[in-house]
Amino acid sequence: MKGGMDGRAEDGGRVYQASGDQHINEQHHHYGWDGVAPGGPDSVRRPAVGRLPVVLRDRGEVMERLRASVGADRVGEVFVLYGMGGAGKTAVACALFEEVTAAEGRVGLWVNAADRASLRAGMLAVAADRGADDAELLAARNGLRPAADLVWRYLDRSAEPWLLVLDNTDDPEILRDGSWLRTSPRGTVLVTTRRAAAHWWPGAELQHIGVLPREDAALVLRDLAPNCGTTEQAARVADRLGRLPLALTLAGGFLSHQVLDPWTMDSYGDRLDGDERVQLIDRGADALSDADPRRTVGLTWQLTLDAFEARGLPEAAALLRLLARFAAEPLPLNLLNHAGIGVVLPRSRTETALRALLDQSLTELVEAAGVRCVQSHGVLLDSVSAATPADLVPALDTAAVRLLDAALPDVPDAGPYDPRLRLSVPHALALLKHIGEPSAARDALAVATRLAVALHRTGDYLSAWETARTAADLGQRLLGADDRMVLAARSREGRALFRLGRYPEAEVALRAVRTVQERLFGVDDPDFLDSSYGLQLVLANLGRRQESITLLRDTVAGRRSALGPEHPLTLRARASLLEALPAAEVATEEGGALLSLPAECARLLGPDHTVAIGVAHNHAWALYLLGRFEEADEEIRRVAEAYVRRFGPEYPIVLAARQLSARTRAALGHTDAAVELMTEVVARRERALGPGHPFTVAGRRLLDDLASGNWRPPGA
Q: Which Gene3D superfamilies does the UniProt record give (predicted)?
């Protein structure tokens, strides 16, 4: 394509073409909101953690060093808190964060860096907090500008000094992908991690956070359960628990909630030494060393679950084992409030079971992306997962897949960025890591792939690519490279690469998938046709127009045969012909019926259906090329209004529609109106993408031609 739809040669790429990848059925998101997803950033002004320790024990020296690091004359430094899981690194970071934000003049910013999606979302929220506007953030999510560069530009320009905490950075490699970890003259970075190797943290000051001294460990238990024994008795229990803060917290939470038959420190310690059931931690799990924190934590939660059983609350154990199939990241509460949970515990008992886990500090309530969530410590979940009896695993996996499945839209629709989708990413991938049975893995991979589609269709192309790629890798372990669902995930990976402008990689990926799909399923298979449709988009943007058109025509014919002429995917493929073909061929294609496609789509799908709007956009372009300027002008203005209602004024496809509108206005002799429209388009693109981006450059060239009188309409 060579024109008003932001085509590659003239207007900088076909990434935002309406017909390119926005097939939606009539079903929409079913989250319980009124059609408009929240577009605001996650909150980074408070730590996404639950209850903090009553008193921060034995961290005075560390806190003094950290306080000095955020003094008025200290900036541009990185501090790394490292230690085993459960040692209290996050608690130390929280304590410093609270002190910093309580004092005047310094801003605290908290980001969960446990995975790529969470890190990117959190850092973009930091940019928003420091002044980045919606258009810039949207461009970063779309992959049209480097996200890390945007974030650090705003951190460097911050009017206030800041403390940035990167919590749970246990995979430091994700910081290097995009250069997320930097220094700034305006603030200090504090990282928490289990990884201490110096090569991960060049130039940073490292601080070890270890287990507590005996006396302080005893005081932690006494802080939580002051009436259960003496300090010496508490010290003996603390020794048995390795003086690990997480284990001490779980033990103290248990002791403080025994009312009818209170336990003493001594009785708790005796059970730790003598109860054989705690050795379940070793069943079916990786071999654990004596120093492995999973073993220590396993001792505490198993006694707690034994107590639940004795009190007639076995559902608490079932719920904890279900939570352990997911990631140690915020899990939306509404995900648990679904009939699918009935595979492992009665839905009517979920509330009671959850309250029991909360009371015993086995999980915590947090807020993420404006959603109430539960979150459990990773060491706890690892130990629970390792100790789960093998005969319970299939039901747990089935329930987990059903809950995730119900949390996603049945057929993802195009729309504004929805931060709540990102919350599901680590859980979908964690579930795929846990599953060991092919049938369950196939179901979980189908859910993860649909999540990637949903992210893709809200413009979060980087997250879509990462999710599809990782899910395919995980699924391939059990299912093999030629499994239908693995191939579908690989196809989505290729589609996301296309949207990121990585055309050669996208071509390689999609050709490889398509070749296997043709061999296994045939040329009329819907999955093969979907990969074919994606590949023709790539070829068009690589300048191989005729090859692209031939493949597109084959896809149209294949979808007519496999899906029927009225299926939205068939209609979308036909709409792409409106945009791809030269004007002379558009008029004769399908015996002239192609030009009546907008009315057909409106009748079959409704005028506000995403495919119908995209068809109208392509149709307006075809009319413009045919010299039918008045019809094109009227149609593209309606399209632009529909896009604004759906996406907001900054969305790139809105600007593409307005750019075509400027052309039609100029073609009708309304040059001043065309210049005004293009001035707005260029200004918005400069703000979002920068003055040197190809989209901005192409728009400014059109604006200059219009303003100077050098522009000519088609056929002139």
A: P-loop containing nucleotide triphosphate hydrolases (3.40.50.300), Tetratricopeptide repeat domain (1.25.40.10)
